[in-house]
Specification:
This protein has helices at residues 8-17, 43-55, 65-71, 98-104, 118-127, 170-175, 186-190, and strands at residues 20-27, 33-41, 75-82, 85-96, 107-108, 112-116, 141-147, 152-155, 158-159, 165-169, 180-185, 195-198, 204-206, 210-216, 220-225, 228-229, 234-237, 241-249, 254-261, 267-268, 274-276, 280-282, 284-285, 291-296, 299-300, 305-307, 311-319, 324-331. It is an alpha+beta fold and 333 residues long. It folds into three domains: 8-190, no CATH class; 195-261, Immunoglobulin-like, CATH 2.60.40; 267-331. α1 crosses α5. The radius of gyration is 30 Å and the shape is elongated.
Length: 333
Amino acid sequence: MKKGFLAVLLLSVALLTGCAAEQKLKINADFSSAVDMDMYTTSQEEEAIMQSLSDMGMTENITSYADLMEGMEFTYRGAQMVNGVLNNIYTSKDTMSAQETKASFLELSMERAVYDISGQVESAENQVEGVTDNDINDMEFFYMTITYPFAVGKANGAIQADGYTVKYDIKALQQQKANRLYAVSKSALAAADKITIRGAKDKKAYRRAITLQVGAQSAITTFTINGRQQTSNRFSTNQDGKYKVVVQSATGLTRQMSFCIDKQKPTTNIKNKKTYKKAVRITFKDKISGVKKATLNGKKIKSGKKVKKNGNYTLKIYDKAGNVKKIKFTIKK
């Protein structure tokens, strides 16, 4: 069974034990990869886990914690002191094809790599809910060590001596509210960085669905819509509303823009096909994109215009997205 990168099942075990884990990923030049997962648990933690699983009726045909780990393709490889406490170490080895490796990342090339960690951590925590109150903060440590097929110039982890490997402290990154791991090659950093946002123009109003695609010469480290972190570099919406976009790159570059989707016509106090027996004061508004202009019998007017003369009138109100409200009314005093 291919476990993939940050597999939910493996992380669930780590959260259950509350001890420590390290996942090592070595990405080859063709983007295939080898994955090692090391789990660190004390004998006391193993006994507690087995008791919890027994209480839930999940230990049938399992006589020990080692049996449990073996069933998940983990091999016992000895004991090691961790912060003065003896821990048993269990290791699982797997491989991923180039397609599987690339599918695990938001972006992976010979110049940059970006991986979303928010969904996997949240899913794993949800999976063990009710078994324990532990979350990733209760672990002794949780590291991701990734060897990239390019020389790393910048990353939000510790670049190792070989220049290709980065060790990420997932626990610390979660505490910092970071939701992405990233690494950028030295060659990409040497080029002038530029953030691109395609699919919408700044301060523009639309009356159709919008799909944004963001990118950078280095790597996108933060992408928010109305303050909410996005888990990919692509965002699509068809909902009316105002949208503020903030994008940051690995070099510290920030770009902001805003747009709105407005498929609703402006509103007015004047009723269509109504005959008024006295003067009227015309008011109008548009709550999303705003009013671009309004005309009365072809002449521009402003909201609050008072009309006294008898006659037939055509009111047209245009918003900035291109919606038009057309009203015909009569004044007959």
